[in-house]
Design brief:
Elements lengths: L7 E3 L14 H22 L3 H17 L2 H16 L4 H27 L4 H23 L10 H5 L14 E2 L4 E2 L5 E3 L4 E3 L4 E3 L4 E3 L4 H33 L5 E3 L5 E3 L2 H11 L1 H29 L4 H6 L4 H4 L22 H9 L2 H9 L1
Parallel strand pairs: 1-8
Antiparallel strand pairs: 2-3, 4-5, 6-7, 8-9
Helix pairs in contact: 1-9, 5-7, 7-9, 8-9
Length: 365
């Protein structure tokens, strides 16, 4: 794999570092990683900022003058189908991406790691996490999130206290013609009211609510762990190759004929040319681990304080001013939302992982 007896590595294909000292492969990779993470943070956090929403709206208006109207209608139809109707597009895409990653891991890394005498427990850990992840993925997809019906309407009305700010009493869902329990929401994608509604996830083609939040959190945890484990195994494999071949002790001749010591930037580029698919896989699972890890921490934080994504998103606004169901004087002071459903860490987690209403429904059946 590496010429251990060769004292010099010729790199005619590499540009002179003095001409472009910073814009090399490694810098571009970390720049790409930073932009992806920054974009993810702006979407998650900036969605609560009215200024950012205004910028997005104005940007869409500008593009509407540039893009032909027929193309706009086609794009809107596709987006409506993908994000506003129940379909299995993202479920299939999820399984395809997962299959491609594990195929590459099995085809490229697993066999080479066996040759380097890696521990089999270490190598089989991603497969174990995959099996557990697929179980929770399936449960997240098929489990009823807590659909409110005429039969269980009264039961759900007694579960949570109304705060009279975000969740006022005696409000009916105009679509389902049901009284809305506290912390519930009508999902326009699934066309149903969901108890303790968190969000609608296109990746599982289902709402996340009171009865399947535990499965969704477990799915997210095992997915993050599998991506991180694969990133660690792949990185350790590349590092061991470098150490065993002593390539980091060698030198190379640049385009000007000068002898250069192998540094980290050149080493990463050399590995990319030698094992392009493995290095690309490492980059992909590292980025994925950061994104999933950030979202997992956010979801666990909400679980710890017993707050849903829907409530977090709405929590920064003075909802009584905009609530059409509550008549208030124009001069009344707006009431800020306060989370009244948090009863300590362990009580909050027990409510999510052992929902009382789900047990009651099973007993009725």
């Amino acid at each position: 794999m590496f010429g251990g007896g060769t004292p010099e590595l010729y790199a005619e294909s590499y540009p002179d570092k003095r001409n472009i000292p910073r814009m090399d492969f490694l810098v571009l990779f970390f720049l790409y990683l930073a932009l992806v993470l920054l974009g993810f943070v702006m979407i998650c956090v900036g969605s609560k900022t009215h200024y950012l929403q205004g910028l997005i709206s104005r940007g869409a208006q500008i593009f509407s003058y540039i893009i032909p109207e027929c193309l706009q209608r086609a794009v809107l139809r596709v987006l409506h189908y993908l994000f506003h109707t129940r379909n299995y597009t993202f479920v299939i895409l999820h399984l395809i991406l997962q299959g491609m990653v594990y195929t590459e891991y099995t085809w490229e890394i697993f066999g080479l790691c066996q040759q380097l005498e890696f521990s089999l427990y270490y190598l089989f850990l991603p497969y174990l996490l995959l099996i557990v992840n697929l179980v929770f993925f399936t449960l997240s997809c098929v489990t009823d999130p807590g659909t409110i019906t005429k039969a269980n309407e009264l039961l759900f009305l007694q579960v949570y206290e109304f705060d009279e700010v975000m969740f006022p009493k005696n409000v009916r869902c105009p679509t389902c013609d049901l009284r809305k329990p506290a912390r519930s929401k009508h999902c326009s994608v699934c066309n149903r009211c969901v108890h303790r509604f968190d969000h609608h996830c296109v990746w599982v083609n289902n709402c996340v609510g009171a009865w399947n939040t535990r499965y969704f959190l477990s799915y997210l945890l095992t997915l993050t762990a599998s991506a991180a484990t694969m990133a660690v195994v792949s990185t350790v494999f590349l590092v061991r190759l470098v150490v065993m071949s002593d390539v980091y002790l060698q030198t190379y001749v640049d385009d000007l004929g000068h002898l250069q010591v192998v540094d980290t930037v050149f080493l990463v580029q050399y590995l990319f040319l030698t094992f392009p698919r493995i290095v690309f896989l490492v980059g992909f699972v590292v980025v994925l681990s950061f994104l999933l890890g950030g979202y997992l921490c956010f979801s666990l934080y909400l679980a710890a304080i017993n707050q849903t994504t829907n409530e977090w998103y709405k929590g920064s606004r003075a909802w009584c001013q905009h609530c059409p169901h509550m008549a208030r004087p124009p001069a009344a002071e707006p009431q800020a939302y306060r989370n009244i459903h948090s009863h300590g860490l362990w009580s909050n987690l027990r409510e999510i992982f052992l929902p009382a209403t789900a047990r009651y429904e099973r007993k009725k059946k």
